[in-house]
């Protein structure tokens, strides 16, 4: 079973459990989920992690997604956000840039203390998005 299927299955089980009347009545947490397309360039860009400059994308087989899950206390207290990327991995620069955007929109609600970003480790997506030289050599630099 591929990672995106496992993530979907996990979300389905979570929603099923949370929608049962016993669980919802005893739960005091707010839970939110969202998904966004992060496919990026469809062709002529190096694939992430192959370390082969000739290994380039030539179209889209499946769209790549970012899936976010937020769990918060209803009184505005603690909260945590977990983002799972259909990408080889996240990195420090990805996290920093996401946190900058979150800060500009939500102030100090989301910080490095309550946001986790992870990749499913697929090589089926574009490369060139990490700050580490070894990962961007074959993509010939940064790819937006």
UniProtKB/TrEMBL annotation:
Residues 1-23 form the signal peptide. It comes from the Eukaryota. The keyword Protease does not apply. Pfam families: Ceramidase_alk (PF04734). GO terms for molecular function: metal ion binding; N-acylsphingosine amidohydrolase activity. Its cofactor is Zn(2+). GO terms for biological process: ceramide catabolic process; long-chain fatty acid biosynthetic process; sphingosine biosynthetic process. InterPro entries: Ceramidase_alk (IPR006823), NEUT/ALK_ceramidase_N (IPR031329). GO terms for cellular component: extracellular region; membrane. Residues 29-143 form the Neutral/alkaline non-lysosomal ceramidase N-terminal domain. Keywords: Metal-binding, Signal, Zinc. Zn(2+) binds at residue 121. This is Neutral ceramidase.
